[in-house]
Amino acid sequence: MAEIAAATVVKLRKMSGQGMMDCKKALAEAHGDMDKAMEILRKKGLATLAKRAERETSEGAVVSWQNAGGNEAALATLCCETDFVAKSDDFLHLARDIRDYIGSAAGDQGADSVLQTILAGKTFQEVLTEVVSRTGEKMQVGDYVKFRIEGTGLIGTYVHFNHKVGSMVLIGTSDAKVAQAPSLKQAASDIAMHITASKPLALDVASLDPEVIAREREIYAAQVQNKPPEVVNRIVEGKMKKFYSDYCLLEQPFVKDDSKTVQQVLAEAAKQAGGQASVRQFVRFEVG
Question: Is it true that 53-148 and 152-208+248-288 share their CATH fold?
């Protein structure tokens, strides 16, 4: 076939972001057809994904999004294999792109909801595959959750400065005025930061898996099994109280003032706003 013009190669490179040699090979294979060449490059990305399917994606970033009205927010993890790629321009641009996709995703959870979302004629899966074909490294959406306020309330989000961990909390309020109060907005932001730092397992004691509670009781009882039953019970209850304080969000000492629990901090903020507030749900994501 005729030699592929350098201008055509450059045009494909600008469209795809691929290297010059990869673009030239794709155009040669496509006999100069630009659309077919783009498809060849995308397939190359899919082939890379398939080839590296078993590779771990332990690096990446936590990404958050919130709409202008504040009644919807989303949190997701975008994962890759190495820290080197996680700091590359390709990955950083993809992390910016995924914010728009998680904002537009119809589903409330699950990576597929993001991957199948279409913006500007492309699914996020297609956008991701194009980046994979450039970097040669596996990438994937690890986690995704969207919160939507029903009734009155607000959503607090926090992503740590290293973008490796982030959290989101939905707080219900007694009325819209309370939700808009500065004290509640600050509390929502602070509690999201607290969740990021303190890694709670559940909202409260009632939300803990009964199997987890039973397992912890067995462990603590085994540690003092030679003592009288009444002593064992007293020690176990004391240790369980500490366990709840360590792992139940509302029972945890607040990271910015450990003389108060998270529950007390929220109650004080709501009282200052002239109403009531309660945590309805939260999520915490981490990569690495």
Answer: yes
Q: For the segment 244-279, what is each residue's pLDDT rounded down to a tens digit?
A: 999 999 999 999 999 999 999 999 999 999 999 999
Structure tokens at 180: 């808009």
List, in sequence order, the alpha helices (H) in the chain: 6-16, 20-29, 34-51, 83-86, 89-104, 111-115, 124-135, 176-180, 182-198, 210-223, 229-247, 262-273
pLDDT class for 26, splitting at 50, 70, 90?
confident
Spatial CA neighbour of 281 closest among 175, 171, 190, 194: 171
Instruction: Using the structure block, give the residue that is written with the tokens 């003389």.
Output: 259
Separation of alpha carbons 193 and 167, rounded Å: 7
d(CA 131, CA 125): 10
For residue 268, what are its two tokens? 């004080």
User: How far, in whole angstroms, is CA 195 from its chain's centroid?
Assistant: 13
Cα(72)–Cα(214) distance, rounded to whole angstroms? Answer: 36
Domain 53-148 class, CATH top level: alpha beta
State mean pLDDT over 222-251: 91
Q: Look at domain 6-51 and name its CATH class.
A: mainly alpha
Quote the Cα angle for 153-141-42, to 5°: 135
Neighbouring C-beta atoms of residue 149, cutoff 10 Å = 19
Rounded Cα distance between 249 and 186, Å, is 17
Give, in order, the Cα–Cα distances in Å from 150 to each of 70, 170, 175: 12, 10, 12
Assigned architecture for domain 152-208+248-288: 2-Layer Sandwich (3.30)
